[in-house]
Amino acid sequence: MPExxxxxxxxxxxxxxxxxxxxxxxxxxxxVRPEPVPLEQVxxxxxxPWRYNRWTAVDLGEPTVADPRPEDRExxxxxxxxxxxxxxxxREWTDRYVDRGVHEALGGQRSLGMVYAxxxxxxxxxxxxxxxxxxxxxxxxxxxxxxxxxxxxxTSGPLLARAEDGALPDDVARHARDSLLRNGPLLLTLGLxxxxxxxxxxxRGCHPLxxxxxxxxxxxxx
Length: 222
Prior knowledge:
The chain is α+β, with helices and mostly antiparallel strands.
């Protein structure tokens, strides 16, 4: 039987031309991936039921996909907007679920986790079939460095729209990095795709991504 939950979205990405992917924390701090999420539910960020800093009421059942990840859950009814929290309150609550390093955050069988990051560089890179992806070069609290694609819709969409012939202008990239770090530590939600065996020995054959970008709140506003 489906169970009602309140979940706090911490990752919202475009998965395909028709569907999005959402990663969220339940009220007791468990990661879930409600599925399926139609892409139109995240395109309008103002009206989306999957917004950062606001809880979403959902009815979740057991996963129906083959070989489910630990976080996969069937979305059994339309998601409903629920309680809004300030960014400062969200940061205070989510802090208890942040891991120190990337490998800890995505350890075991987990495919979602969070770390604080030192953001070194924001840039774009052209990949297969001519597609252009936003990327972050960052390090976690252990000092290990990473260079990952950033499909988070709130961050990638606006920046990719400013790319010129696939490249992000230097001034735009610097401003983006400075803005993300302006008010304090940057919190990143990390996610793994399903195994594609392009990364054998790393993250269980899955592709690692930055799936949620959460700048520190402005204390004076909060």
